Amino acid sequence: MATVLWTAAAEADNYRLIDSDGVVHLTNAPTDPRYRGLPVVSGTSTGWLRMTETSHHQFASDIREISSRHGVDPSLVESVIRAESDFNPTAVSRTGARGLMQLMPKTAVMLGVRDSFNPRENIEGGVRHLRYLLDRYPGNVPLAVAAYNAGEGAVDAHRGIPPFAETQQYVQRVLHGGSAWSGRSVGPLPRSVYRYAGPNGSVTYSNLPPGSRLTVAR
């Protein structure tokens, strides 16, 4: 079994090296050319941060009750939790997102969540936030899911699912990842991303083709 050895506290870029003994070294200041950069990820995709294996069945009752109260499909909530933390209530991402639905501390405070590691509180806050996003992007579940991962600013700036590999994969995983969520009324993700250069040298990426009305965020 490989051993993980932290050689520095990673705050920015992370690098990984697996030595001849199978020991995994992680650092933010590589001193050996064998180190390889790790992709920038959040708690939605990393596996290094999971500390326990937890069955989703123990949260099923809370998910159904809370989702029903807020008018959100419980299967969608389950899919989000699976993508966010794999049902690990103690999960913590590199950026500080916590718990089952990976709430950032500031977001948790805004949602009235006092303890993000309390499964029921975390689900309550996450479902409330998801309900808000479903209302913000009415009838467009993919955009709401993308905003849960990348933020509303990114979705609004790109007027669609942002062209970030993590977010694109996240939306696919939540909506089409083989979970109970059926993905009804969910169209395919945009296959093309267009690059627009502004007069001041700014560059904007969008899923809108040339000729479409595009508002460039400044």
Summarize the structure.
Among the domains are: 4-37, no CATH class; 56-154 and 165-176, Lysozyme. It has 218 residues and is α+β, with helices and mostly antiparallel strands. It is built from seven helices and six strands; from the N terminus they run ββββαααααααββ.
- How many individual β-strands? 6
Please name the CATH architecture of the domain at 56-154 and 165-176.
Orthogonal Bundle
Kindly estimate the percentage of residues that lie in beta strands according to DSSP.
5-15%
The helix/strand series, from N terminus to C terminus, equals EEEEHHHHHHHEE
> Which residue ranges are poorly predicted, with pLDDT under 50 across at least 5 consecutive positions?
1-12, 40-53, 184-194, 203-209, 212-218
Spatially, the strands of the biggest sheet line up as 1-3-2-4
Mean of all residue-level pLDDT scores: 76
Outline type: globular
* Helical/strand content category: alpha+beta
Query: Termini separation (Å)?
Result: 49 Å
Multimeric status of the protein:
single chain
Return Rg in Å.
19 Å
In the CATH hierarchy, what is the class of the domain at 56-154 and 165-176? Mainly Alpha
Q: What profile does the largest beta sheet have?
A: 4 strands, mixed
The total count of helices amounts to 7
CATH topology term of the domain at 56-154 and 165-176:
Lysozyme
How helix-rich are the residues, as a percent range?
25-40%
